[in-house]
């Protein structure tokens, strides 16, 4: 993913121009605002880490800003209990399936929207977006019935397909933004040079929008990874996501805060890794290619 | 970019269409179906017309949930958008700190929503959490599981914590696309800080900010998991927003007709708001291209 993503950032951030900073950045205290904000973001996460390294009796017995009886027990229990670690495997399985599926079907559709006018294209585009707007709570019950009736209930495929509901529209939207940034002359030149459409698309076009594809995959990963309501409704035992294991634990065994905190920390890690890989494209990526 | 008219482009859209139709049309028709019927024992149905709709629209419970939803959505928009813009304006434009800031800021966005709820639950517990301890320590009587006001405060701070970064990242993307020449011209003209913001930065951020508002509106309007994990809709019904209420009716009470009618009304509300935003946004985009 990280290779071949180089072009877009280059134009956004020109080479360092020494100390010739624009006048408006003169204030010396501006760094304070982002710093305070990041501090605010990190505090709850620090607290979660803190809790995850404490044994249960310390959590309930005393109040301290850092773990006094440092322990990895909470993590050890997660990595040895199949219910827990299968939760992670299940989640990652359907997230990756959904990511691949969404990107693959969204690529040709986004190309059509960015290059051609066709009957009903604008309505279709908005209709796709409406699915991104539909509250998942509406779909929870009908989804259970639909996927039960086709025999997919409690499988990874069911969750991967269900998450397509909001990920495909988003993928089409982002990719369309990036594709519209590629001049149409590129297509025409390639056809004149005798490229067939599939060869042109895979050999020339896709490398050109590689950063866009990376960003799209990132978003599909993100929204599928963080979603709980549909994933929880569509699974019972076989494909139960980690989020669902967590909520069940917190409700059944009451105050297992340490375990819950450790599980929470572990769910942050995949996201953090993914962010690290796309860090240079993050700003433009969140603008959906439309800056 | 001028686009060619070509109806064969439909073939490119077909896979998307098939998948989304399977996921959206069938369930939506199921919901419409339930919303006009009365069910007995779960498998005998007969037509009821608009009974459920009028029942939902007239119910005190729905109106209260809708009211709470609107208050929540507009409060967080009013906080997150200006705050996000302010932070983006203060961010460094180049250097190593940019990546550090961006990665750290994007972190909350990739935390599963139930974990966000769990984090804030642990953070805000009056006896065990840092926030709860500090607030109680400086003299507030803070307990988000007992007092409605505290629950609301925690919910809104949690959402600001969770989603302001999205606005920051979008606004920042808009800002870094402004060429230095604009600022130099402004400097020559002797423009004030406010004038630079009003006439250079704000217009350049307009498009991304519309996206930010659209996304934040849609997502906050369908928020479910975070308040569910944090407060479970309580204390009482004080933080029961639309989605929580809907799931209570549909999966808790299994009241199909009412839940379905409520779903349709809920969806239509989101749709109307979003359509307005979308039209405005597309008009901006048209201006940007010409």
Automatic annotation (TrEMBL), chain B:
Entry annotated with the keyword DNA damage: no
One Pfam family cited in the UniProt record for this chain: BPD_transp_1
Annotated ranges, domain ABC transmembrane type-1: 66-277
CDD domains assigned: TM_PBP2
Protein location: Cell membrane
Protein's membrane topology: Multi-pass membrane protein
Transmembrane segments: 12-36, 70-89, 96-123, 160-183, 208-225, 259-280
SUPFAM superfamilies documented for this protein: MetI-like
Keyword NADP: no
Domain of life according to the entry: Bacteria
Family recorded in the similarity comment: Belongs to the binding-protein-dependent transport system permease family.
Protein name stated in the entry: Sugar ABC transporter permease
């Amino acid at each position: 993913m990280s290779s071949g993503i180089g072009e877009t950032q280059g134009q956004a951030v020109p080479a360092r121009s020494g100390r010739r900073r624009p006048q408006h950045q003169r204030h010396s205290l501006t760094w304070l605002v982002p710093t305070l904000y990041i501090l605010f973001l990190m505090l709850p996460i620090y607290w979660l880490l803190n809790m995850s390294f404490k044994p249960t009796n310390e959590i309930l017995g005393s109040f301290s800003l850092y773990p006094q009886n440092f322990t990895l027990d909470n993590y050890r229990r997660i990595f040895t209990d199949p219910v827990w670690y299968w939760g992670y495997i299940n989640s990652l399985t359907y997230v990756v399936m959904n990511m691949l599926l969404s990107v693959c079907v969204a690529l040709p559709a986004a190309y059509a929207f960015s290059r051609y006018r066709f009957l009903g294209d604008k309505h279709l585009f908005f209709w796709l977006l409406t699915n991104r707007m539909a509250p998942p709570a509406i779909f929870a019950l009908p989804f259970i019935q639909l996927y039960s009736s086709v025999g997919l209930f409690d499988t990874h495929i069911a969750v991967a397909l269900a998450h397509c509901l909001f990920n495909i529209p988003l993928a089409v939207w982002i990719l369309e933004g990036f594709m519209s940034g590629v001049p149409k002359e590129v297509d025409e030149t390639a056809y004149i040079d005798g490229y067939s459409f599939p060869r042109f698309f895979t050999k020339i076009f896709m490398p050109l929008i590689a950063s866009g594809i990376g960003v799209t995959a990132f978003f599909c990963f993100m929204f599928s990874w963080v979603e709980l309501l549909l994933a929880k409704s569509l699974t019972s035992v076989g494909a139960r996501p980690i989020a669902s294991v967590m909520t069940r634990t917190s409700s059944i065994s009451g105050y297992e805060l340490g375990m819950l905190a450790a599980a929470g920390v572990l769910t942050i890690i995949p996201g953090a890794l993914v962010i690290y890989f796309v860090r240079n494209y993050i700003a433009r990526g969140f603008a959906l290619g439309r800056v | 970019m001028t686009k060619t008219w070509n109806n064969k482009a439909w073939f490119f859209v077909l896979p998307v269409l098939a998948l989304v139709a399977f996921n959206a049309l069938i369930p939506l028709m199921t919901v419409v179906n339930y919303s006009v019927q009365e069910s007995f024992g779960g498998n005998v149905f007969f037509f009821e017309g608009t009974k459920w709709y009028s029942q939902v629209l007239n119910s005190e419970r729905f109106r209260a949930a809708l009211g709470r939803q609107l208050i929540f959505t507009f409060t967080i928009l009013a906080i997150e958008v200006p705050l996000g813009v302010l932070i983006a304006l203060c961010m460094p434009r180049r250097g190593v700190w940019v990546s550090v800031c961006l990665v750290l800021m994007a972190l909350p966005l990739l935390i599963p929503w139930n974990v966000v709820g769990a984090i804030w639950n642990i953070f805000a517990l009056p006896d065990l959490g840092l926030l709860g301890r500090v607030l109680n320590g400086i003299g507030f009587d803070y307990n988000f599981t007992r007092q409605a006001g505290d629950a609301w405060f925690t919910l809104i701070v949690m959402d600001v914590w969770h989603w302001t970064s999205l606005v920051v990242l979008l606004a920042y993307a808009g800002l870094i696309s402004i060429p230095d020449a604009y600022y130099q011209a402004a400097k020559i003209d002797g423009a004030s800080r406010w004038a630079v913001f009003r006439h250079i930065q704000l217009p350049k951020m307009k498009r991304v900010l519309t996206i930010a508002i659209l996304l934040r509106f849609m997502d906050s309007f369908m928020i479910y998991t975070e308040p569910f994990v944090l407060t479970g809709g309580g204390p009482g019904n004080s933080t029961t927003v639309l989605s929580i209420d809907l799931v209570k009716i549909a999966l808790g009470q299994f009241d199909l007709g009412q839940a379905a009618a409520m779903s349709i009304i809920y969806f239509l509300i989101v749709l109307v708001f979003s359509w307005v935003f979308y039209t405005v946004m597309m008009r901006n985009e048209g201006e940007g291209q010409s």
